[in-house]
Amino acid sequence: MKTHLQSLLRELESSEKITVLYANQYGNRAWGVAATDAAWEGQFIYIRPEASYLEVKDRRNPGPLTIQDESLSLLGMDVRSFLEGYLRSEISALEALHAPEVYRRSKYFPATLWALLPAYFSPSQVIRQYVALSESFRPKSNTKTVSVQAYLSALRPMLAATWVAAHKHVPPLSLQALYQPLEAHPALQKEIRELWLVLQEKGAKARAPRPVLIEQYLKAETKRLEQLAASLPTVKGSAQKLTDFFRYLLTLTPKDHQIRHTS
Prior knowledge:
11 helices, six-stranded mixed sheet, alpha+beta, single chain, 8 strands, two-stranded antiparallel ribbon
């Protein structure tokens, strides 16, 4: 799969005249909430030639690029758009830089952003985003059975918000890593584990009785974390530093980026 992915990225670089700076696993597989037959998902960050950013007719950031076939789906973002998200401490940008599987990386990206992270990571904003993401996945109906995938997808960002509240750092991406610290709540851990096993055994369409302890946890943590986030200061990093980094990247040739591939 990785060899196929690299081949598709090279084809896109040639056809779109871009350089892919970074590519990583993303989506349900990276988050640990995928069924065994789930699609292979990923994302990549690319940069265009300097001249294309200076055109009068195109001052907006370009839309996303996509690669999709029967075996995988990849979503590409222009590096300038990515840096804007990083400036706002968006969880999609932060998670990309801490992905469990990286397929391609340049010498300077993401190393520079890792080094800058303490000045841009805003726990209050990240907690709010994770809580909102959890609520967006949470089933709204009061049926006796619920989608296992939906509940695990709602649980993971809430656990991530709990992690951020405790550690003030980017959390692990996977559900498995996030629920392990719940040793003080063995019954909740057991319910999470059982729900995950149902997903693995029955697939993405699996349903199960409403998980009482998980529902209680989601409700209690939503209230606690919203209050905590409101009490924390908002971290605002320097836009100029990211602008300088972007301009530096534009001076590099594809060879200068010293791209490393994982195959």
